[in-house]
Amino acid sequence: MSVPAMSTTVGSFHLSRSHGTPSRSFPRVRMAVRSGAVSVAPILTNLQKDCATSLPVLSHVADAMAADMRAGLAADGGSNLKMILSYVDSLPSGNEKGLFYALDLGGTNFRVLRVQLGGKEERVIATEFEQVSISQELMFGTSEQLFDFIASGLAKFAQKEGGKFHLPSGRMREIGFTFSFPVKQLSIDSGMLIKWTKGFAVSGTAGKDVVACLNEAMERLGLEMRVSALVNDTVGTLAGARYWDDDVMVAVILGTGTNACYVERNDAIPKQTGHASASGRTIVNTEWGAFSNGLPLTVYDREMDAASINPGEQIFEKTISGMYLGEIVRRVLLKMTEEGDLFGKSVPVKLSNPFILRTPDLCAMQQDSSADLQTVGSILYSVVGSPILAQGGLWWMYATRS
């Protein structure tokens, strides 16, 4: 990573109308690097140093995570990694037949799906799904409000059933509930919420059976459907992959949050008592988003954690997942603006707003291969609120894009 120290023109860009930009267009402008902005170089150098993950560092982190995994398997509360038993000890074979529903609640959206399976011969006959956004009000509302909203969306989806989907006479619709938050699993179809993560702070749910919460909401609507299985999204991912590939043993989630699960031998789980599986194996949900032992953290990671709704928790998740990456970069840009005049002599008001820069914005900027970084300019404009200020900040993108 290098930063040029001279005041030379390095390119031009045009602000497009995407990413919330007003309908008027801005003229293509030439942009010069100001000599005063070179003061961001120490910030970039320190960031590069703090983010470095050499092989010895990675080895240390891997060893620490393995130790935490073993401690979590030995006893509940033995480490930051919950190592939750899923009660799933058999995985799909491909012989499954019938109509199945699925509900996935794992972030700022929930998804509902139905699938008609035809066994080894026909496999997946038909699928349909819908995605519904969850508002900030619901993320900070009550348990009843959230689950009533989910049940309502599920009921509307079920009403559209038809075509290739067939429910045998006399059968109640069954649904698999993928719930991507830490849960103390009690059985295959019940589990108590340990705590909300990923920015959720719903009241009245912690310590309650989330399956019961959903069943009660469906009953209030008169929806004839019951939850037959509760799984974490990692377990659902593993089961879905195993349907097609018998060799799959591990599943990893990299989305709004992050987590992983894997197939473990029962004799490697000292804390497992009173549950015997015919296969001699079970799926363990690691909840590795809570891992923190030995992780290299920058000042931006620490400041974001301190300002979060759950300081000191979910540290691994906060360093790599989609909910937080945009916010980390916003904090870096704000530091460069305050100390290095990145966007001019004053700090753009919008840049001080937490989470104004989203991870999808970072992805779009990273993929911008145009000569004048049009997408980068457009996104910076939407963030800082001024085309002139966006021009002033684009030089950093030029200097660091390699």
Structure explained in plain terms:
The chain has helices spanning 41-51, 55-74, 119-122, 136-139, 143-158, 210-221, 233-242, 299-307, 315-320, 322-340, 359-366, 374-384, 387-400; strands at 9-13, 29-32, 84-85, 97-105, 109-118, 124-133, 173-179, 183-187, 190-193, 225-231, 250-254, 258-265, 281-285. By secondary structure, the chain is α+β, with helices and mostly antiparallel strands. The strands form 4 sheets. Strands 6-5-4-7-10 form a 5-stranded mixed sheet. A 4-stranded antiparallel sheet has the order 3-13-12-11. A hairpin with a 3-residue loop joins strand 4 (97-105) and strand 5 (109-118). Helix 10 (322-340) packs across helix 11 and helix 12 (374-384) crosses helix 13. The longest helix has 20 residues, at 55-74. It is globular, with a radius of gyration of 25 Å. The N and C termini lie close together (7 Å).
The strand count comes to: 13
Taking the alpha carbons of the first and last residues, their distance comes to: 7 Å
Quaternary state reads single chain
The chain-level structural class is alpha+beta
Order of SSEs: EEHHEEEHEHHEEEHEHEEEHHHHHH
**Which sequence of strands runs across the widest sheet?**
6-5-4-7-10
Mean residue pLDDT? 84
Shape: globular
Counting DSSP H or I runs of 4 or more residues, the number of helices is: 13
Please describe the biggest sheet, giving its number of strands, its sense, and whether it closes into a barrel.
Answer: 5 strands, mixed
**Helical content (DSSP H or I, runs of 4+):** 25-40%
Low-confidence stretches: 1-38
- Percentage of residues in DSSP E strands: 15-25%
Which radius of gyration do the C-alpha atoms yield?
Answer: 25 Å
